[in-house]
Specification:
alpha/beta, 10 helices, 39% helix, binds phosphoenolpyruvate
Length: 255
């Protein structure tokens, strides 16, 4: 936990999961269990569920977020969603540059940065994801890779108020494998230093860890220096697991 973060941010990325009934039930269960928790919670459902989940969360402290947005203003982009459309639905956050989009949709750092520019322009907080592949890690390139992604993906006007960085090693996502605490520490410290070289309020930019965070490992991960929260995939689809991770984070929050 980084002192500037105060409370951890625990973000659930539902990915392409959830039909209306189970998505609503999940959102309601998280809402009911989250009362009084000293953690900032965020739910990022698929686009089809943004409106109903947003209604289910209305009046609660749980934020709503999108999983991607287009870099352009509204217009002729079939199947895409403009940042302003997310904001219009009540989203406060948008996940950008997730490795499933970098790999599955060919998103480059430059494209991620263009999306972040659009998101920031309409008042959304961008959660910019980065992380090395297993081959890159094996070659000892992890720190260089994440620093390069950070440089390329963050816009010049990124700040603690409008940007969150999520370190998600590609090989840890959905695999049940997690880097050692020492490795997470090293990457987060490296990212913090890189941010400090470029942004005045770098100490306040939240750094999330993502990749197979579960109730069983959340306490250890969220206690690490410079880990200001978690981006949670699979475990965010079970209210009890997501809430247990949030409780583990809340135990680390500063008074
Ligand atoms: C993710 O996809 O952002 C993620 C962290 O997934 P999981 O928690 O399932 O590894």
């Amino acid at each position: 936990m980084n002192q500037a973060g105060g409370r951890p941010l625990i973000a659930g990325n539902w990915k392409m999961n959830g039909l209306r009934a189970d998505g609503l039930a999940l959102a309601q269960a998280i809402r009911a269990g989250a009362r009084g928790l000293r953690a900032d919670l965020l739910i990022c459902p698929p686009a089809t569920l943004l409106a109903p989940v947003g209604e289910a969360l209305a009046g609660s402290a749980i934020a709503l977020g999108g999983q991607d947005c287009h870099a352009d203003r509204p217009g002729a982009h079939t199947g895409d969603i403009a940042a302003v459309m997310l904001a219009d639905l009540g989203c406060r956050y948008v996940i950008l540059g997730h490795c499933e989009r970098r790999a599955g949709h060919g998103e480059t750092d430059e494209m991620v940065r263009a999306k972040a520019v659009s998101a920031l322009a309409v008042g959304l907080i961008a959660i910019v994801c980065l992380g090395e592949t297993e081959a890159q890690r094996d070659r000892g390139e992890a720190l260089d890779v994440v620093a390069r992604q950070l440089t390329g993906s963050l816009p010049e006007n990124a700040s603690a108020a409008n940007t969150v960085v999520a370190y998600e090693p590609v090989w840890a996502i959905g695999t049940g494998r997690v880097p050692s605490s020492g490795d997470i520490l090293a990457v987060h410290a490296h990212l913090r230093r890189a941010l400090a070289g470029r942004f005045k309020d770098a100490a306040g930019i939240r750094l999330l860890y993502g990749g197979s965070v579960k109730p069983g490992n959340a306490g250890e991960i969220l206690a690490l220096a410079d880990v200001d929260g978690a981006l949670v995939g699979g475990a965010s689809l079970k209210a009890e697991d997501f809430l247990a991770i949030a409780r583990a984070g809340a135990e680390q929050s500063w008074p």
